[in-house]
Amino acid sequence: MAQPGHSWFVGGTVGPWQVCAMRTVVGEGLDAVPRLARLEEPPAPGAGWGLAGVSSHLRYTSRDERGELARLQEGLGRPWARRAALIPIRKSDAWWALAQDERLGIYRQSQHTAIGMGYLPAIARKLFHSRDLGEPFDFLTWFEFAAEDEPAFDALVERLRATVEWAHVTREVDIRLAWAG
Amino acid sequence: MAQPGHSWFVGGTVGPWQVCAMRTVVGEGLDAVPRLARLEEPPAPGAGWGLAGVSSHLRYTSRDERGELARLQEGLGRPWARRAALIPIRKSDAWWALAQDERLGIYRQSQHTAIGMGYLPAIARKLFHSRDLGEPFDFLTWFEFAAEDEPAFDALVERLRATVEWAHVTREVDIRLAWAG
Q1: pTM of this prediction?
Q2: How does pLDDT run across B62-120, given as a tens digit for each residue?
Q3: What sign does the dihedral B11-B14-B15-B18 (CA atoms) show?
Q4: Which of A5, A58, A99 is opposite residue B63, by nearest beta carbon?
Q5: What residues in B contact A131, CB-CB < 8 Å?
């Protein structure tokens, strides 16, 4: 059943993105695959694993931050951004049982937005929400950058993983990709 | 495709809830039906209209409010609560384009939580999120109360509809039900 507005990331043997590395950061991994495709409809049965998400409204970003992000960030699909990463994440039940102000407090303490902002515009990013879709992960984040910016991207994700917020991450897989379309 | 954790409200000719009244408050209505069922799986084709939602984490409620709600509110299914209401709501694209602090500001200014709290424990309430599922409504709220509390419920929804927050509601249907199971 196709759902308007949903996106699928499909790991298998087809797709324009070549999988360069898959690393399970915490929790259960995903089957190793050689290729990844981004689809706007569910994958055919047997195509490999598929992760669905939806691009949704802002959950923690303030008006000021949104303005700053809009000024700094660039969209996906820049022709020279031939490296990408897909990082599916699940957070603990305890995290989701927190009230909005408690989650926002941890998010701000962790400087999540500020950390990401420091790597703009080089690292383009798009967040997909999965939790309410009954998916195995809560979020799928898709990043695109130039090959020479991969060390900066490594630094970005390591800084995020060192935050208090990341203590609530119970499953994370880091998938690195190169455009082969 | 059944989705774990999703709920369906199905308007048609079967189900334990008799539809007493359906009123389109704003925007497009829903087809009039005599019965309503709550399902944990998608309805069979031709069963009538079906609205899906997911019970999700708190979006605006603070820790203090959550504690107060937990202290005051009662669950669904109280045997004497033989009246119910289903109120599907959609908000404007402009609402969803607001940042989190802007939406929270309007929500607080409208005293949304405080208004609902004033009718506890008489009016039990459960919120289902639909927007990210690609549904026609953004929220489905289900209320249960005793027959003698229907005037109080009328007052509750009228107070909410008079708030600044409700200026962002572009579609709302008010469905009143009586237990006939």
Answers
A1: 0.87
A2: 999 999 999 999 999 999 999 999 999 999 999 999 999 999 999 999 999 999 999 99
A3: positive
A4: A99
A5: 56-57
